[in-house]
Task: inverse folding
């Protein structure tokens, strides 16, 4: 049991270390949180090292994308305030 805990902690630490290379703050938190959650879930489902690492990788990717979307949304809200007449991605309104 202790071995699983150490493997999970090591995988989560490695993923969080790599999360420091992410762009925005939400992207970083999303990657780290997704990796930890994925590692715990992978360990609970599979109970071995491969499932723990695989869960951390998949969770980190999903968390990264969720965080990236939040960062882009915050950037667009700041750069293009409501009522400015321009909303990226919506196209012209005729």
Result:
């Amino acid at each position: 049991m202790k071995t699983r805990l150490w493997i999970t902690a090591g995988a989560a630490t490695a993923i969080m270390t790599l999360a420091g290379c992410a762009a925005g703050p939400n992207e970083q938190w999303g990657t780290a949180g997704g990796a930890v959650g994925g590692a715990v879930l992978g360990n609970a489902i599979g109970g071995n090292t491969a499932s723990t690492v695989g869960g951390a990788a998949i969770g980190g990717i999903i968390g990264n994308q969720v965080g990236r979307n939040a960062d882009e949304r915050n950037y667009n809200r700041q750069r293009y305030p409501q009522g400015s007449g321009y909303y990226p991605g919506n196209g012209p309104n005729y």
The radius of gyration is 18 Å.
